[in-house]
Structures are given as structure tokens and as C-alpha cells.
Amino acid sequence: MVKLKIAVVHNKTEHSLQITAELLEKLMAAGHTIDQTNPELVISVGGDGTLLSAFHLYSHKLDQVRFIGVHTGHLGFYTDWRDYEVDDLIELLSTKKEESVRYPLLDVRITYRNGKPAKHFLSLNESTVKRTDTTMVADIYIRDELFERFRGDGLSVSTPTGSTAYNKSIGGAVLHPRINAIQLAEIASLNNRVFRTLGSPMVIASHEWIELRMQDSAECLITIDQFQLQQEEIKSIFYRIADEKIQFASYRHTHFWRRVRDAFIGDLDE
């Protein structure tokens, strides 16, 4: 019998709390150890947002932990199990040798004009940058070469798994997570006879990087997945594929394109 050290992360809805209590009781009955500090496996109970929270909670242990999502609604892009499948999940945890599937992450580094120490983040879905009051102006460098001067509401840089989130809503392409690349998409760019941008999403290879050099020091809103940062005096924001990857435990990992079809198209037999 396989015995694991397991952490459980959940949202605060009544149903998720009920499923979490059931899950914890049955995990311990099966001989697993609940360890919220040094787990081998992290189980999220809720939705994709809950799994994002679990990722950020354990992002400093990515070489040690694997993730599983239990959804208390409909299946999401990161959740392979439904709330009524707790018994099946625990049986596989206890009897089956686990394999992992690894997905790319986004490395985000923010530097400042005023000597403030740089900040570093990892993102599972995407990072966006926007001006809070007026048009954002930023020079976009691809691998240290100026590509364009952007004017508009903002920019979004996403991972392949994050390509189905905010990126898709602003016209970005959906990328399979096996593609080790990041995607840059414009948010309401200003294009006329005077100012021009490419106007199309760009897929950046893993050996390249993106740098956004801000053209003024006004306040910007930066998002890292579901977290928001109000920042001033930004000099540049640097994006690349992270060295780290997230590992999902693949006891039963749903095919990516099936997730896309179920989320945006639905059952073709209906």
C-alpha cells in the first residue's frame, strides 16, 4: 500500500468544506499522513481558482510536490476529479504507482527606477500589466531587441495552460501545455495613422524572453494569476519561461483538448 504525506487546500464554500472533511477523514483512514508543511501531494478542493491558490502556497516546493484538483462544480482546466469521486481517488492514491505530467510556468521579474529591490514571481496562468488612469506606453523588447512601442490599455503574457483564461478573452490563441512557450497579447492597443502595433498575439519560444520597458513612472496594476499589485516607479518587467515546472499527479489526467471542448463547445451529441 502506498502511503503519502498530503496537504489539502480548499475554498470556503459550504460544499467544499463538506468534501474536504470527507476527504481528510478517508485519507487518514487509508493510512496517509496530513502534512500541510512538507507534503508530497497537494489536493485542492474547489475550482481552478483554488488550485491556483494551492500552487502559490507551495510554489517554493515545486521540486517536491505534485498537485491534484478536486472540483466541487464542473470540471476545470486543472481539476481532474469531481466531488463525488473521492473514494475512487483515494483508492488510486493507495494502490497505483503515480506518474506526473509537467507544465510550463511563467517567470516574472519587476525592476524599479528608484533603487527599490527587484521582485520575482512565478505564474501558472498569466501576468498582465495595465495603467490605472490613462494610456499605457511601453517599449516591447524581444530577446533584447526593440520590437514595437505599445500604446493601449495593457498587455498580457500567458503560459500555455493559461492561454485558455484571460488570454483567450482578448483574442489570444489556445496553446497545448506541451508547447514550451509563452504568449504575448495586447489589450485594446491604439492603432491609427500615427501609432502602430502588430495587433496580433505573439508566441515566444522558450529560448527567448520579453521585456516591457515602461515609458513613465506612473502607477501600474500588475496581476500575477489572481493576485493584484499596485506598483509605481516601474522600470521594466521581464518575462520568460521559468526553470521550474508544476507537476500534476496523473492518476487520471484529462486530455487537454477534451478540457477545451468541454469548456467552450460542450457535448457534441447534444
From TrEMBL:
It comes from the Bacteria. The active site is at D48. Keywords: ATP-binding, Cytoplasm, Kinase, NAD, NADP, Nucleotide-binding, Transferase. One of its GO terms (molecular function) is NAD+ kinase activity. It is found in: Cytoplasm. Its main location: cytoplasm. Its EC number is 2.7.1.23. NAD(+) binds at D48, G49, N125, E126, R151, D153, T164, A165, Y166, N167, K168, S169, A188. The keyword Transport does not apply. Coiled coil: none annotated. Its cofactor is a divalent metal cation. It is an enzyme of class 2 (transferase). It catalyses: NAD(+) + ATP = ADP + NADP(+) + H(+). Signal peptide: none annotated. Belongs to the NAD kinase family. Involved in the regulation of the intracellular balance of NAD and NADP, and is a key enzyme in the biosynthesis of NADP. Catalyzes specifically the phosphorylation on 2'-hydroxyl of the adenosine moiety of NAD to yield NADP. This is NAD kinase. It comes from Enterococcus camelliae. The gene is nadK.
